[in-house]
Amino acid sequence: MVVDIKNLYDLENVLEVYDSLEEKKWIEKLLDNVKEKIYNNELNENNIDEFKDSVRKITTAYWLMKDKFSKKFRDGWDRYFEHLRAVTNIVLDMKNPSVQKVLIALYHDSIEDVDASYEVISYVSWSEKIALAVQAMSKRPWQDYSDDKIEWKAMRNEEYFEHLSSYENMQEYIEELCWENDIELSAEEIDVVIDNIFNVKFADRIHNLSTQWDENNTEKVKRKVEETKKYFLEIAYKTNPEAYKKLKTLILELEVRLANFNWKSMQILAK
Length: 271
Hints:
This protein is mainly alpha-helical. The chain has a single domain, classed as Hypothetical protein af1432. The protein contains 14 helices and no strands. The chain has helices at 11-14, 21-37, 48-68, 81-93, 99-107, 110-113, 118-125, 128-136, 149-164, 167-180, 187-210, 218-231, 233-239, 241-270. Helix 10 crosses helix 11. The longest helix is centred in the last third of the chain and has 30 residues, at 241-270. The radius of gyration is 20 Å and the shape is globular. The termini are far apart.
């Protein structure tokens, strides 16, 4: 039996309070994308309960993260939540999107930036695997490192990117986190977690690079470009050719902009 999806879910029944009509349209669009990209617009008696459960989990994550990041802004004073939403949309446009990836995208900065924890994310997402992925994508608390600020920032970043630089490194790290959190996953389950992590991280890096340009801080732009080359291109090439191509394109665009900026700066100095 095919289910009539016209009035399958009413967002007013999911959450009755909206900041604005525009916000309501955003989440409707997100859920329509989930329906199209993950469920292929084919909802029936076999998957309808799963879809409704996905809607509840995604809308919970959406509004919870919107609330928790409400006072956080990115460079340029864009609200930080726009980044979470953008990464989620990029994930949905990638090959083989899933509800797990959508949830990881929405939660991915919560441990690092709004003081959530593995336990909190596991509880609100109803999934140890979601929480594990978010934890693996988060830098460890600075208290775990040296008291010297410059030293601990360098150590923290190096460890974080090393985990993300290869499948083997991430597998070892996931196994370590499983032990820390006292959970058991099969090899197949760990593979899925790792695939989710890399795909969401690629989406995160794609959005970061696409919004990275700042002529007042070209050193940061250079650092992000070099960071992407060093840690992400090889693993993207091996695991996600689509993301690899996009990252290469964004790197080239930023390098051209840097070259043009440096050219103009030298011309001004020459005068």
